[in-house]
Design goal:
The chain is an alpha/beta fold and about 300 residues long. The protein has ten helices and twelve strands. Strands 1, 2, 3, 4, 5, 8, 9, 10, 11 and 12 form a ten-stranded mixed beta sheet that branches. Helix 2 links the parallel strand 4 and strand 5. The structure holds ligand PBG.
Length: about 300
């Protein structure tokens, strides 16, 4: 009765990794229990999650090297398996909320979120590609586009492209305060999307900065973001709290792959009690002010709730 913070299953978005093909369920070594799915098996996974009470998903494609190029053109190609998967999931489960990833890295031969020219990531040349990618996803039926690229001005060009083409109802969840973090390591293994050279520090935020998150949020909201995200979550709970106190849009937190991996590793060694530590982590994000949590723990959280191990 006197608990200040509640966690409902409707807070969660469960990330799923998609590969082309059939009957594929490929484990990701550094993320025990998380797989790269082909569409047929992913549909079953979604069905299980829906039965447990998880209704929102974010999809990430793992793209073959031969389909990658410098400008990420496969991202909006009519042959793109990711776009067909969005169509199929929405057809089979019209009631689920589906979110996409908008960034060049899964499609880029350079492994960067933007176009690379002479070793530099060029912001403005990347923007029209991101707009095309978001539009292709909207045409496929996505509910929320999720620009994770951190290029300046991308929310504005994406909003304009969506509106101009009649997708006024497609929402934007912007990766607003996305830090140049070591905690994305397992994700890059999952998608084989690590940068081929350099790092992401010219476009992702310096972990030392907090005031800059306010500037990023103001810009994203002005440009049309419906939901703003802080990523990673655990090492940035102060940033979540800061944005919650300063803006009246919903705040999401991305509980990233490295945060998942470190708890799983400790639990596998018997060094931490998973069933207690995991819900405690989730609670901390909600307590800090996150309305929405993107988490690889989502399905297991729902299972623990069903088994009444947690309230
Ligand atoms: C890239 C992207 C990343 C994640 C989501 N989108 C990695 C990166 O910026 O290198 C990380 C998610 C995670 O670690 O769980 N567009």
């Amino acid at each position: 009765m006197v608990r200040e913070t509640q966690v409902s299953l409707s807070c969660f978005i469960y990330p799923l990794f998609l590969v082309d093909g059939v009957n594929q369920k490929i484990p990701i070594t550094s993320m025990p229990g998380i797989y790269r799915w082909s569409l047929d098996l992913m549909l079953k996974e979604i069905e299980e999650c829906v039965a447990l009470g998880i209704h929102s998903f974010v999809l990430f494609p793992a793209v073959e090297d031969s389909l990658k190029d410098q400008l990420g053109t496969y991202s909006y190609s009519s042959k793109n398996f990711y776009l067909s998967a969005i169509r199929e999931v929405k057809k089979r489960f019209p009631e689920v909320t589906l979110m996409s990833d908008v960034a060049l890295d899964p499609y880029s031969s350079d492994g960067h979120d933007g176009v690379v020219r002479a070793g530099e990531i060029v912001n403005d040349e990347t923007l029209p590609i991101l707009a095309k990618m978001a539009l292709a996803q909207a045409e496929a039926g996505i509910d929320i586009v999720g620009p994770s690229d951190m290029m300046d001005g991308r929310v504005g060009v994406i909003r304009e492209a969506l509106d101009d083409n009649g997708f006024t109802g497609t929402s934007i969840m912007s990766y607003t305060a996305k830090y140049a973090s070591a905690f994305y390591g397992p994700f890059r293994e999952a998608l084989d999307s690590a940068p081929k050279s350099g790092d992401k520090k010219t476009y992702q935020m310096d972990p030392a900065n907090k005031i800059e998150a306010l500037r990023e949020a103001t810009l994203d909201i002005e440009e049309g973001a419906d939901i703003i995200m802080v990523k990673p979550a655990l090492a940035y709970l102060d940033v979540i709290a800061l944005l919650k106190q300063n803006y009246d849009v919903p705040i999401s937190a991305y509980n990233v792959s490295g945060e998942f991996a470190m708890l799983k590793a400790a639990a596998q060694n018997g060094w931490l009690d998973y069933n207690r530590a995991m819900p405690e982590m989730i609670l901390s994000m909600r307590r800090a002010g996150a309305d929405i949590i993107l988490s690889y723990f989502a399905k297991e959280y729902a299972q623990l709730k069903k088994e009444r191990i947690i309230e």
